[in-house]
């Protein structure tokens, strides 16, 4: 079922969903199932599975020589989605990214998804490779999420690559895109970022999932600005509790977000990571309660494979 249908069927009730990373190459799926099992009691209507492009790594080859190798550490997004859908009878949302995939490979992945009965995709540009100064498009691939979105909406119209005529066999994907209540870090200003977000919505995106944030006023302002810009699709807040002291620095650095002063002070006053986790979970529960009152359609948790904090938060809310 489509995400938009799940939201419509909920009739204003806030839903719970979460996101996982595919296992590292050479690991089994059991870790994924272990991360899902404790959260199924909260009846998520859908589960997202991220996608990652290849990264650069340097391998010692003896004599002090380093060889540059480029490979994907977490392949398997489509297969993980299919396995979850099969085992738990829950919808999955594979992330599709521009980086690391040619248009042909993307088309093949979309055909696989259609045949597997996966109805939703989240289309993204994707992160830059480690060691690259910025995002470098893959030759033969897409540069921006808008371009990838166009490929998916084309397939929804029966338009496949390299075919002369549209096909009668059309895909029917419900398409999500990313947005940043605190601005995407490369955008020169929020207004420009909104211009491109609006392009994604006008280009056929059906829902938005936001970057994580810790200050609800950022989300509320963002929703208001979306409405003022004629963006009226569901806006799903992305959420992640802080669970250790290091994240006070790493989350703003990696995700380009602010941590409110009160939360930062409370974390810095903690004696150890157990205490930090308690503060982070408590903050997130309060944040979620307010978001539910505000009418957020779904609370979407970036679990990063660690179910326990999300379970505690969901237990307090659902
Ligand atoms: P875009 O919408 O393409 O925007 C990228 C930047 O370019 C923005 O600054 C935008 O303002 C600008 N821009 C957009 N269109 C144009 C245009 N036509 N011309 C000029 N400038 C333009 N990364 C992964 O690698 N894998 C994942 O699974 C993943 N999942 C994510 C899930 C969510 C909910 C979020 C919020 C992010 C996720 N990311 C993931 C990270 C994301 O890929 C990065 O933040 C990336 O830098 C931007 O992706 P985007 O889809 O927002 O890009």
UniProtKB/TrEMBL annotation:
Enzyme class: oxidoreductase
Keyword Glycosyltransferase: no
One GO process term, biological-process aspect: methionine biosynthetic process
Pfam families: MTHFR
SUPFAM superfamilies in the cross-refs: FAD-linked oxidoreductase (SSF51730)
Keywords: Amino-acid biosynthesis, FAD, Flavoprotein, Methionine biosynthesis, NAD, Oxidoreductase
CDD domains: MTHFR (cd00537)
InterPro entries: FAD-linked_oxidoreductase-like, Mehydrof_redctse-like, MTHF_reductase_bac
Domain of life: Bacteria
Reactions it catalyzes: (6S)-5-methyl-5,6,7,8-tetrahydrofolate + NAD(+) = (6R)-5,10-methylene-5,6,7,8-tetrahydrofolate + NADH + H(+)
This protein's pathway: One-carbon metabolism; tetrahydrofolate interconversion; Amino-acid biosynthesis; L-methionine biosynthesis via de novo pathway
Record EC number: 1.5.1.54
GO cellular component terms, semicolon-separated: cytosol
Required co-factors: FAD
Alphabetical list of PANTHER family matching this protein: METHYLENETETRAHYDROFOLATE REDUCTASE (PTHR45754), METHYLENETETRAHYDROFOLATE REDUCTASE (NADPH) (PTHR45754:SF3)
Family membership noted in the UniProt record: Belongs to the methylenetetrahydrofolate reductase family.
Protein name: Methylenetetrahydrofolate reductase
Organism: Mucilaginibacter ginkgonis
Gene name tied to this protein: metF
């Amino acid at each position: 079922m489509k995400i938009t249908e799940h939201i419509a069927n909920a009739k204003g009730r806030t839903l719970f969903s979460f996101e996982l990373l595919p296992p590292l190459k050479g690991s089994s799926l059991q870790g994924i199932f272990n991360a899902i099992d404790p959260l199924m009691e909260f009846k998520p209507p859908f589960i997202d599975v991220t996608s990652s492009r290849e990264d650069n790594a340097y391998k010692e080859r003896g004599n002090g020589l380093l060889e540059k190798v480029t490979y994907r550490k977490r392949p398997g997004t489509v297969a993980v989605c299919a396995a979850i859908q099969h085992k738990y009878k829950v919808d999955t949302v594979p992330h599709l990214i521009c980086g690391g995939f040619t248009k042909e490979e993307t088309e093949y992945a979309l055909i696989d998804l259609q045949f597997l009965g996966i109805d939703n995709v989240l289309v993204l540009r994707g992160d830059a490779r480690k060691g690259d100064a910025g995002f470098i498009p893959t030759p033969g691939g897409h540069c921006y999420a808008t371009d990838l979105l166009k490929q998916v909406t084309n397939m929804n119209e029966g338009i496949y690559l390299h075919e002369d005529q549209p096909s009668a066999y059309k895909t029917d994907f419900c398409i999500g895109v990313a947005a940043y209540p605190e601005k995407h870090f490369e955008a020169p200003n929020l207004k420009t970022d909104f211009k491109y977000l609006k392009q994604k919505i006008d280009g056929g995106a059906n829902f938005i999932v936001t970057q994580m944030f810790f200050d609800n006023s950022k989300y509320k302002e963002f929703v208001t600005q979306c409405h003022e810009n004629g963006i009226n699709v569901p806006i799903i807040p992305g959420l992640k509790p802080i669970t250790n002291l290091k994240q006070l620095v790493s989350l703003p650095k990696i995700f380009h977000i602010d941590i409110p002063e009160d939360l930062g002070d409370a974390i810095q006053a903690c004696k150890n990571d157990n205490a930090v986790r308690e503060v982070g979970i408590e903050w997130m529960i309060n944040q979620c309660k307010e978001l539910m009152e505000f009418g957020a359609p779904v609370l979407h948790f970036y679990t990063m494979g660690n179910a326990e904090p999300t379970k505690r938060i969901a237990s307090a809310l659902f």
